[in-house]
């Protein structure tokens, strides 16, 4: 089905199912219970997971398949956001044209930046992409302020032309919509104290994320995807087999840039505001971490990585000292303060520390990322009864060879 | 006229004249061996033929066209495939994928954006790759990750990857170097079989005299970057200059 083999079709259907039921799956705790703050089923977070999932899946097409590690992909995220907001200002609050323009413009930028950066490989390529992204960031604050509105960020205004919407406009700022259905409208369902929120914004992002994921599966399984893995494996052999690795790598770069632009456009569609800090190098680093944390080169890994990081960012950062005190109030005073102090380092503002520790543990013990962890658990469950020792593992996936020359000459 | 005509090729690395004034003509459907001591410039000569190096002087004509100034992938598309001194394969990919890549390269050229096709639909190419794998006796290893195989199998795979492209000229750089005896014998058998079954021109660099004399139609002896003599294997064996420059000091024939 869908041009996929049976295994991939099943896989895609599972992903579709999980995505569509996210508002329920991410809301496991009853309202008012102590664990309710671990519920992630609110639109803002779920949208972010879907959007950054798209970003990471696209990034993985470049990094996971060809081995070229870009440190500047946030530039395309920012460019996508600016393009989309311009479309909202000039044409219509319907998000479709904005998202299409976001993909086109970021694709053009990716073609230009990729063309230059791909003259080098390895660390030099990474540095070049980083430099280009920082240049975009700086220019957004300086020469390009007429386009980006500098530090304030690009926003909607009442006197925007909005050619297509003009007639129906009121006196307050319009909201983004999909053919009239506002992105921020939602339906709340209360089942036995569990409140599930189904919002237009999330489902819009979810459908696009599923499409983006489907395209990625097709690409991974195509001859083109195989060529990209060949680029990572041995460019020398490629050359002497009559293949030119350059256009293959550039195509992968542009495709992943367009995924980033799509994600940027969606961010703007959820919240019509674009700022340059979206292009900062830390944002580029985040997508690298998402991809590696989940499992570079796998289909599901980047999505998982994006989900974990956005969940940590949104949930752990909300746990402040007073929350911790309410958890540990039953401890003797002195010990309570100590325990709260320790936990406070890892929550609230300190959530980055949790992320850092998680990342270190995963990279050290699961070089294949969280996906590798899931695979190991699955295998454990499957042949749990059998005696196992460390030589008892025929699956080469579990012993990934050390990465060879990353996109070396 | 040979299918490959090398005229007056010279190559200098800094102070070292790696190739002097090399003239070489390789005729269609022959096996032409290039022998010579270590550092004689044999690999350098091959590098000049496949676009890895640009010679300082001279010309290289293949099938009536100059190869100089062309990129390696363009030269491959003209019909020259090369097996390297250390096997160059796609180590992270499976044996079958290693075979499919040259098949696609041969059919679709240096670049094609086949992002929405599925490999499984390419029945003709799959059949071709499988036929080639079974010819070299590796069909049962088709799903193995290439880097996990023995050196002999890697070399076999590399030869199969070159052959499946049906090149007009196959260049082999010391195909048995560093191999166990059994692997060497297997490789010789494979090359003999290829020679017998296919219309193909082969240029082979080889240290193992047993291999050379059992395969070659003609032999060129290279020493210090210049061809010493070129003749049939029988004549080379008895040639005094060759004995002095090469055979006498390293190998018993
Ligand atoms: N890329 C290079 N740069 C500098 N010197 C080289 C290079 N390639 C080969 N040489 C030198 O040229 C000479 C011939 O080398 P080569 O062609 O590899 O010999 P062989 O006949 O053993 O294959 C050697 O002295 C080698 O050190
Ligand atoms: Mg050599």
From TrEMBL, chain A:
An example of a GO molecular function for this protein is:
branched-chain amino acid transmembrane transporter activity
Gene Ontology, cellular component aspect: plasma membrane
State where the protein is found.
Cell membrane
Alphabetized, the UniProt keywords read: Cell membrane, Membrane, Transmembrane, Transmembrane helix
What organism is the protein native to?
Celeribacter baekdonensis B30
Transmembrane annotation, as ranges: 50-69, 98-116, 123-144, 195-217, 247-267, 287-312, 350-371
Name of this protein: Inner-membrane translocator
Cite the residue spans of the region called Disordered.
382-409
Major location (coarse)? membrane
| Comp. bias intervals (Basic and acidic residues) | 389-409
**Protein topology in the membrane:** Multi-pass membrane protein
Automatic annotation (TrEMBL), chain B:
Q: Which residues form the ABC transporter domain?
A: 4-249
Task: Please indicate if the UniProt record lists Transmembrane as a keyword.
Answer: no
- Alphabetical UniProt keywords: ATP-binding, Nucleotide-binding, Transport
Q: Which Pfam families match?
A: ABC_tran (PF00005)
Q: Which SUPFAM superfamilies match?
A: P-loop containing nucleoside triphosphate hydrolases
Indicate yes or no for the key word Transport: yes
Tell me a GO cellular component.
plasma membrane
Give the GO molecular function terms: ATP binding; ATP hydrolysis activity
The entry's protein name is: High-affinity branched-chain amino acid transport ATP-binding protein
